[in-house]
């Protein structure tokens, strides 16, 4: 009989192996759409365990574990594999060997955890009913996102899962704990690329120039009104500009200024309208000041929604597996994730895995050079996902 004690026992037995998987992947990070070695490493283990798999989205891997008891139920589990263009500052034996590339967002944890979960489920396959689809996905960190490509290539078909579950590291949550939120959870994200054109010249003769620096400044300030005066105040919206490039000098007004930013929100209708308003306002300001503006928007990921029934069930299973005191409520998170694409087309649950430990120094934020995890979290991540999977399949 499958129960949590059996799953926890297997999870403890393979803990050191999963740590090894994580450290290997962490030491050999690869950027989005270039996860060739990571993909081969995953396929090597699936082959050793006799788990059939197929290639998808170039470097993606999709495995299939079919339970020995007949059932039409199918559930998908997803992990992302890519790393970030960050120079790692940690001095650990498993630190990145690829200078300037680092697993600073925990995708090494997600992939190694799913390998551990696959091992557990495969070792129990004669005892459960249903099918588990293992999705090792490339390129979460780079638009258009590996999830969108895998969906287009049919990852949610043949067999078609009734639900998909994913987890993501969270250094703000203590190791041994997890967090859930039902309904809308993470924001959509769009990238803004603005080029303001003017007429450059000597800084001592501004009357002979059309100053794109001044125009860009007005645009940056004015666009904040889109959020403060056009958005419903009950709807979270974020507009931030992180890059302004004006290649002039103390006494040189340049011909153009480039601005880059991000817009995030939690409503698709408002998202579309806000982008229209931003483009119209920026172009209008530039024209009124004698210049012009190219306002390019790169559409990013949609908002992420956790299907209420699936998420409530997963949370209950987590409370059973870890204890109620170790399962937390999450607030809305204005970061974005391409797991959102799955949530737009099927029932989805995306929860947070605690990896923080002050004594071990693992509370640095993701996307920073010092990010690392308390590897004890791998004991939680593998077994919990296996338990949620089997319970959701009705075992």
Structure write-up:
Helix 4 (107-123) crosses helix 10. Strands 1-2-4-3-5-16-6-15 form an eight-stranded mixed sheet, with helices on both faces. Strands 10-12-8-13 form a four-stranded antiparallel sheet, with helices on one face. The chain starts with a helix and ends with a helix. Helix content is 35%, strand content 27%. It is of the alpha/beta class and 395 residues long. The mean pLDDT is 97. It contains ten helices and 16 strands.
Q: What brief labels describe this structure?
A:
395 residues, alpha/beta, four-stranded antiparallel β-sheet, Aminopeptidase, eight-stranded mixed β-sheet
Topology overview:
Layout: H1 4-13, H2 15-27, H3 36-48, E1 53-56, E2 60-66, E3 69-80, H4 107-123, E4 129-137, H5 146-152, E5 163-174, E6 178-180, E7 183-186, E8 190-197, E9 201-202, H6 212-230, E10 237-245, E11 252-253, E12 256-265, H7 268-288, E13 292-299, E14 304-306, H8 308-322, E15 327-329, H9 339-345, E16 348-356, H10 377-392
Parallel strand pairs: 3-4, 3-5, 5-16, 6-15
Antiparallel strand pairs: 1-2, 2-4, 6-16, 7-14, 8-12, 8-13, 9-11, 10-12
Largest sheet: 8 strands, mixed
The CATH top-level class label of the largest domain: Alpha Beta
Question: How many separate domains?
Answer: 2
- What CATH calls the topology of the largest domain is Aminopeptidase
What's the CATH architecture of the largest domain? Answer: 3-Layer(aba) Sandwich
The gyration radius over C-alpha positions equals 24 Å
End-to-end distance = 9 Å
Total beta strands: 16
Count of DSSP H/I helices: 10
Organism: Pedobacter frigoris
Pfam families: M20_dimer, Peptidase_M20
GO molecular function, one term: metal ion binding
InterPro entries: Amidohydrolase, Bact_exopeptidase_dim_dom, Peptidase_M20, Peptidase_M20_dimer
């Amino acid at each position: 009989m499958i129960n949590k004690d059996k799953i926890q026992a297997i999870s403890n037995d393979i803990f050191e192996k999963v740590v090894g998987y994580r450290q290997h992947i962490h030491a050999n990070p690869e950027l989005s759409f270039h996860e060739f070695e990571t993909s081969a490493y995953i396929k090597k283990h699936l082959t050793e365990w006799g788990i059939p798999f197929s290639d998808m989205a170039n470097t993606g891997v999709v495995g299939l574990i079919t339970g020995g008891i007949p059932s039409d139920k199918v559930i998908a589990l997803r992990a992302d594999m890519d790393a970030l263009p960050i120079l790692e500052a940690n001095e650990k034996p498993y630190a990145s060997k690829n200078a300037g590339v680092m697993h600073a967002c925990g995708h090494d944890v997600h992939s190694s955890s799913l390998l551990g979960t696959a091992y557990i489920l495969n070792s129990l396959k004669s005892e459960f009913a249903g099918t588990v689809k293992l999705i090792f996905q490339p390129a979460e960190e780079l638009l258009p996102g590996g999830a969108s490509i895998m969906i287009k290539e049919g990852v949610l078909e043949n067999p078609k899962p009734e639900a998909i579950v994913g987890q993501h590291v969270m250094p703000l949550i203590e190791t041994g704990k997890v967090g859930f939120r039902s309904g809308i959870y993470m924001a959509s994200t769009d990238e803004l690329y603005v080029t303001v054109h003017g007429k450059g010249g000597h800084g001592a003769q501004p009357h002979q120039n059309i100053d794109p620096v001044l125009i860009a400044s007005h645009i940056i300030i004015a666009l904040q009104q889109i959020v403060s005066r056009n958005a419903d105040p009950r709807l979270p919206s974020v507009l931030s500009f992180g890059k302004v490039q004006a290649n002039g000098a103390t006494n040189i007004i340049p011909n153009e200024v480039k601005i880059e930013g991000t817009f995030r929100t939690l409503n698709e209708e408002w998202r579309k309208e806000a982008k229209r308003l931003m483009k119209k306002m920026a172009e209008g300001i530039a024209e009124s000041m004698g210049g012009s503006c190219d306002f390019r928007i790169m559409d990013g990921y949609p908002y992420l929604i956790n299907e209420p029934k699936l998420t409530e069930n997963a949370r209950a299973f987590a409370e059973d597996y870890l204890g109620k005191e170790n399962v937390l409520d999450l607030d809305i998170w204005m970061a974005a994730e391409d797991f959102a694409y799955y949530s737009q087309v099927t029932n989805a649950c995306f929860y947070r895995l605690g990896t923080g430990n002050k004594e071990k120094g693992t509370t640095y934020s993701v996307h920073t050079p010092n990010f690392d995890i308390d590897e004890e979290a791998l004991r939680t991540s593998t077994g919990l996902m296996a338990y949620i999977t089997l319970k959701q399949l009705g075992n």
